[in-house]
């Protein structure tokens, strides 16, 4: 997915590296316990090992930064616009701009037509969607598992997040991931993805057909 | 002989004449004596009671979470139990337990045979007891992070007790830190030959003292804001949530090293005892302790990285430092594995329960620590890591798999010294295996749930793919750990009276299989 940051994104190779040195550590521990042969590593060996680790630190920093910067550049394009709902051009264009109000406990989604929903953000399959998120009480989280992205919002800030909606129409979870009070577990909503032909309105297909 | 193998850089051996200290102790001595062993035992046994309490809370809410949709507790009770579980385990079990074990070891290793500034240790203990009582009465449900402004808008009239308890925890930990630093500086050692436990407690003691200042401010600030006397953190009255976040995590990140480093100190003290030869490297241990203490404070903001509060070049700076703080732990683990590799491991060590726990805690630090290399990266953190079950998987591996198990290893090591008797080997083995299996199942299932974006702090959840099955496994793992604890608790009570009397040296180094089975009770 275009906006993927981790699992299937460019960070996958780092996940593989991480998994392999976890296994390496456990294998070395087992070898130290059960191998018959004894071995006293030299200091040079430790320095070499640490050098490899420091190299990995630089690589992880570079890789993560590239991935995240590429994601953020889409938002920066939006910030350059003067006001209102940015439509953009070419690859920068957002198909949908949805304002999200996070509160104790739930989300309100306001689309371009000022239609408000308390439990669903309606978008079309494959849409590039911008969420403008605010919180009016405490720190909340905003996570869309299918889009593989998380944001947090503190009450003093407006925060933006974009996703590429899945190609498969259906209902996908939106959830708060920061503990925000006793109703936190109820703080969830749906990303409703309709067929690309439908007009994205709260009534979905009905509006198109009933007009 | 085991004792001669401690070089001058390891200090005196951690060895006492086994005696029935617990049985001969009066209640007055237990409560108020300034003898270092009495103070340490008081802390250790209180911590074990806290472990039982925190574990009981966890098992109750694990039942609630085992299957989706079935309600047993409700949100309020669940969140209260969850909050108390976190606070009791970290502030009541982990930190006091490893610190108390260091109180027991330090005077012996440093050769002073008394705990300097013992009065401060007493105050530290009793203030923590007051905090625990306040927590149980106040029943806060704001999780251990107590994020403002949520934490004073809970609708609970007793919530101020929770805020006051945070302040008292800060005072208690500050005093404990001062005691650790004072005792690390004691004894007749030159700087180049201070035992590693002194380097550990000295550096972490300073970290205790530095990091509890912001925590104390957080406690007082929340108390004042909640009573509407102040407005530090309440945005509706002119305060700032950002201010809260930076101040809190200036404590909150070093807080994870407060139990971590003393646990490492226990490894450096008892590993040479069991192996009969010194550590592979003295200086890589010293360097790692200093690096960890220096690196702990500035990286707190990685805990709230998905907020816009941390962004731009500063966000990358925090990411880079967080990745680098991995290095001191690599130095430690390298040192331990290299030490185990150097010479044949004595048959007596292989049978010794503390040694087994120590080896498995090294396995868990690798499991939980190496995978945490992903946690530090902004990209993966903004994907499936931040505040999903991936995080509890990480800190249960580090806090329980490593620190908790090292605390238990230290306890089993000291057991014959303060009861004069050896614990029952069979029951200890049952405890050991139940914990390894239970912990591994629990931590792995938490990681799987987190990978599937299961959010933290929910009492109920939808039956989405990949959510219900890991939750069931976490509950099963949790109950195995609970069963292991029952073996442990019964063993420590039963063996104190009926165990086999300990030899003069309960942990001799024997390479001969038969001699080993005479020294360490047969399996």
Form type of chain B: globular
| Main interface: chain pair and counts | A-B, 72 and 77 residues
State the CATH superfamily name of the largest domain in chain B.
Cytochrome c oxidase-like, subunit I domain
Count the beta strands of chain B: 2
CATH class of the largest domain in chain B: Mainly Alpha
Order the strands across the largest sheet of chain B as they lie in space.
Answer: 1-2
Number of domains of chain A: 2
Instruction: Give the terminus-to-terminus CA distance of chain A.
Output: 34 Å
Low-pLDDT residue intervals, each spanning 5 or more residues of chain B: 1-6
The CATH level-2 architecture of the largest domain in chain A is identified as Sandwich
Which CATH architecture of the largest domain in chain B? Answer: Up-down Bundle
Estimated radius of gyration of chain B = 22 Å
Q: Given the structure, what is the number of helices of chain A?
A: 3
Quick one: how many beta strands of chain A?
A: 10
Within CATH, the superfamily of the largest domain in chain A carries the name Cupredoxins -  blue copper proteins
Low-confidence stretches of chain A: 203-211
Largest sheet of chain B: 2 strands, antiparallel
Q: Report the span from N to C terminus of chain B.
A: 24 Å
Task: Characterize the structure shown.
Chain A has 211 residues and is of the alpha+beta class. Chain A folds into 2 domains: 12-80; 94-201, Sandwich (Immunoglobulin-like), CATH 2.60.40.420. Chain A has 3 helices and 10 strands; from the N terminus they run H-H-E-E-E-E-E-E-E-E-E-E-H. Chain A has helices at 12-34, 43-80, 205-210, and strands at 96-103, 106-110, 116-117, 120-124, 128-135, 140-144, 149-153, 158-164, 170-175, 188-194. In chain A, strand 1 and strand 2 (106-110) form a beta hairpin. The radius of gyration of chain A is 23 Å and the shape is elongated. The two termini of chain A are 34 Å apart. In chain A, 35% of the residues are buried. The longest helix of chain B has 35 residues, at 75-109. The two termini of chain B are 24 Å apart. By secondary structure, chain B is mostly helical. Chain B has helices spanning 27-32, 36-66, 75-109, 118-138, 159-184, 196-226, 241-275, 283-296, 312-324, 326-342, 347-351, 353-370, 378-385, 390-419, 425-451, 468-498, 513-519, and strands at residues 421-422, 500-501. Chain B has 17 helices and 2 strands. In chain B, helix 2 runs antiparallel to helix 16 and helix 12 (353-370) packs parallel to helix 15. A two-stranded antiparallel sheet of chain B has the order 1-2. At the A-B interface, helix 1, helix 2 and strand 7 of A face helix 3, helix 7, helix 9, helix 10 and helix 12 of B.
């Amino acid at each position: 997915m275009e906006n993927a940051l981790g699992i299937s994104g460019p960070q996958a190779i780092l996940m593989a590296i991480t998994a392999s040195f976890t296994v390496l550590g456990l294998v070395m521990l087992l070898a130290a316990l059960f191998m018959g042969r004894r071995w006293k590593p030299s200091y040079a060996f430790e320095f070499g090992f640490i050098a490899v680790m420091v190299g990995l630190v630089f690589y992880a920093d570079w890789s993560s930064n590239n991935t995240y910067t590429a994601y953020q550049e889409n938002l920066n394009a939006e910030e350059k616009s003067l006001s209102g709902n940015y439509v953009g051009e070419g690859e920068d264009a957002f198909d949908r701009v949805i304002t999200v109000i996070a509160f104790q406990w739930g989300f309100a989604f306001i689309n371009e037509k000022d239609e408000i929903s308390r439990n669903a953000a309606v978008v079309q399959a494959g849409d590039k969607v911008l969420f403008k998120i605010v919180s009016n009480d405490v720190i909340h989280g905003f996570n869309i598992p299918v889009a593989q992205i998380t944001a947090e919002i503190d009450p003093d800030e407006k925060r933006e997040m974009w996703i590429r909606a899945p190609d498969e129409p259906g209902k996908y979870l939106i959830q708060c991931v920061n503990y925000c009070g006793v109703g936190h577990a109820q703080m969830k909503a749906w990303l409703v993805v309709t067929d690309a032909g439908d007009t994205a309105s709260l009534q979905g297909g009905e509006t198109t057909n009933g007009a | 002989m085991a004792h001669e193998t401690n070089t001058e850089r390891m200090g005196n051996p951690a060895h006492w004449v086994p005696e029935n200290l617990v049985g001969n102790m009066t209640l007055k001595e237990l409560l108020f004596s300034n003898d270092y062993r009495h103070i340490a035992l008081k802390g250790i046994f209180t911590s074990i009671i806290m472990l039982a309490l925190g574990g009981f809370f966890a098992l109750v809410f694990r039942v609630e979470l085992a299957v989706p949709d079935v309600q047993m507790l409700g949100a309020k009770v669940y969140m209260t139990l969850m909050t108390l579980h976190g606070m009791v385990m970290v502030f009541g079990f982990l930190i006091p337990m490893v610190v108390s074990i260091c109180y027991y070891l330090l005077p012996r290793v440093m050769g002073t045979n008394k705990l300097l500034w013992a009065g401060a240790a007493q105050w530290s203990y009793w203030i923590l007891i007051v905090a625990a009582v306040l927590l149980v009465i106040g029943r806060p449900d704001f999780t251990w992070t107590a994020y403002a402004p949520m934490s004073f808008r809970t609708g609970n009239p007793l919530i101020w007790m929770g805020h006051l308890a945070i302040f008292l925890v800060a005072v208690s930990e500050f005093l404990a830190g001062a005691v650790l630093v004072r005792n690390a500086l004691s004894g007749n050692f030159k700087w180049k030959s201070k035992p590693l436990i002194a380097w550990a407690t000295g550096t972490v003691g300073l970290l205790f003292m530095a990091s509890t200042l912001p925590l104390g401010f957080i406690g007082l600030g929340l108390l004042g804001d909640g009573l509407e006397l102040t407005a530090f953190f309440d945005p509706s009255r002119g305060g700032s949530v950002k201010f809260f976040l930076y101040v809190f995590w200036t404590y909150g990140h070093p807080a994870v090293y407060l139990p971590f480093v003393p646990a490492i100190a226990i490894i450096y003290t008892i590993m040479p005892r069991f192996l009969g030869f010194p550590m592979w490297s003295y200086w890589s241990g010293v360097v790692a302790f200093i690096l960890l203490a220096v690196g702990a404070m500035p990286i707190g903001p990685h805990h709230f990285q998905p907020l816009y509060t941390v962004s731009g070049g500063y966000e990358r700076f925090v990411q880079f430092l967080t990745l680098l703080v991995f290095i001191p732990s690599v130095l430690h683990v390298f040192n331990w594995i290299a030490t185990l590799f150097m010479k044949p491991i004595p048959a007596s060590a292989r049978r010794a329960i503390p040694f087994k726990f120590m080896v498995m805690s090294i396995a868990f630090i690798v499991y939980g620590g190496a995978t945490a290399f992903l946690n530090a990266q902004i990209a993966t953190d903004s994907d499936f890591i931040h505040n999903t079950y991936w995080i509890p998987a990480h800190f249960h591996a580090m806090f329980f798999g490593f620190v908790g198990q090292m605390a238990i290893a230290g306890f089993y090591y000291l057991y014959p010294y303060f009861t004069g008797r050896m614990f029952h080997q069979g029951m200890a083995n049952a405890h050991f295996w139940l914990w390894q299996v239970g912990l591994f199942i629990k931590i792995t299932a938490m990681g799987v749930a987190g990978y599937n974006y299961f959010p933290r702090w929910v009492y109920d959840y939808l039956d989405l793919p990949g959510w219900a099955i890991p939750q069931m496994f976490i509950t099963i793992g949790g109950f195995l750990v609970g069963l292991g604890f029952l073996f442990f608790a019964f063993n420590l009570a039963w063996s104190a009276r009926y165990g086999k009397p300990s030899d003069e040296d309960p942990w001799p180094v024997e390479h001969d299989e038969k001699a080993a089975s005479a020294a360490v009770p047969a399996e």
